[in-house]
TrEMBL record:
This is VOC family protein. Residues 6-121, 138-255 form the VOC domain. Its cofactor is Fe(2+). Belongs to the extradiol ring-cleavage dioxygenase family. Keywords: Aromatic hydrocarbons catabolism, Dioxygenase, Iron, Metal-binding, Oxidoreductase. Signal peptide: none annotated. It comes from Niallia oryzisoli.
């Protein structure tokens, strides 16, 4: 059984590395760590990185990385994923050293083709992460649209050991999932859509006031606000969505429900209504979750 410590980081392709680095540092509120050629590492915790930006010809999601609960579980997880036919590849020492982390495997989900990294022992920085104007406290979740919803839900729950926190729809069209035994209502969610793509990424804000202050800062900096502020019924969080320089949707979220490892409440089936998504009755802007290509990587090319 796979046991996770947390959602660690994502790797994004961006079309203008300098512009996006400035945005994630000075608007989103992350801390710049280092740049190695066309790759930039940023953090929102004591980890060496919680976001990697890479210059690319088109913007999109390149990888999603989860930290395993214990280093001792790495080989068992590698063998398990191999048994499941997922053909994981272990990264070379050279690559894990660049990433400042321990043993790392990479595989592709066979349904929508997202590349995952499962890793252990990320380097902890000497100085704590100091939130700037936008007080973010952690990387919280990743959401996809998919036209293969049932298969993807089955894959996450029955192969990767994610647990359903809530669903929505008579025929389920939304699922909010947590990587067991991480406590947050969801570090991954999926929704039925015409195509397979990233819907958004979410960061936790420290307080509700920080979300309110961000509304003014985003407006002052002409950053498009795409939805909110409002309150999501599923996780109970206060939210605010906005666009990054490539149009990718980002969310600040505050006050998400947390689950214990044992004795957690049962998942609810929620009405697929406007009020379920926003108890305050707001409506997303047309550009909400419009961009978010999933970059298909050829894992055969991974150097090992
Ligand atoms: C994608 C939608 C709008 C959504 C719905 C509910 C929650 C939550 O309960 O936290 C989200 O985070 C969402 O992004
Ligand atoms: Fe979200």
């Amino acid at each position: 059984m796979i046991r996770y410590k947390k959602l660690g980081y994502v790797v994004l392709n961006v079309t203008d590395l300098n512009k996006s680095t400035d945005f994630y540092e000075n608007v989103v509120g992350m801390q710049f760590v280092e740049r190695e050629n066309e790759t930039v590492y940023l953090r929102s915790s004591r980890d060496h990185h919680n976001l990697i930006l890479e210059q690319g010809p088109e913007a999109g999601l390149k990888r999603v990385a989860f930290e395993l609960e214990k280093a001792s579980q790495f080989q068992g997880v590698f063998d398990y994923l191999t048994e499941q036919g997922l053909n994981p590849v272990e990264l070379s020492k050279k690559e894990t050293q660049s990433l400042a982390q321990g043993r790392t495997l990479r595989f592709k989900d066979p349904i929508i083709g997202v590349t995952y990294e499962f890793y252990v022992e990320m380097m902890q920085m000497g100085l704590p992460f100091v939130p700037k104007d936008a007080k973010i406290t952690r990387f919280l979740h990743v959401v996809y649209d998919t036209n293969r919803f049932d298969e993807l839900l089955d894959f996450y729950t029955n192969v990767l050991n994610f647990v359903v926190s809530d669903t929505s729809g008579r025929e389920t069209a939304w699922a909010w999932l947590r990587a067991f035994p991480t406590p947050y209502h969801h570090n991954l969610a999926i929704t039925k859509g015409p195509e397979n793509k990233l819907n958004h990424l979410a960061y936790q804000a420290e307080t509700v006031d920080d979300i309110g202050k961000q509304v003014n800062r985003l407006n002052d900096q002409n950053v498009p606000i795409l939805f909110g502020p409002g309150r999501h019924h599923p996780s109970g969080s206060i939210f605010l969505y906005f666009a990054d320089p490539d149009g990718l949707t980002l969310e600040y979220s505050q006050g998400m429900e947390e689950f214990p490892e044992e004795g957690a409440r049962e998942p609810r089936r929620l009405e697929p209504s406007k009020e379920t998504i926003d108890e305050w009755g707001g409506t997303p802007k047309p550009d909400f979750a419009k961009y978010g290509k999933i970059i298909q990587e050829d894992l055969a090319k991974v150097e090992n």
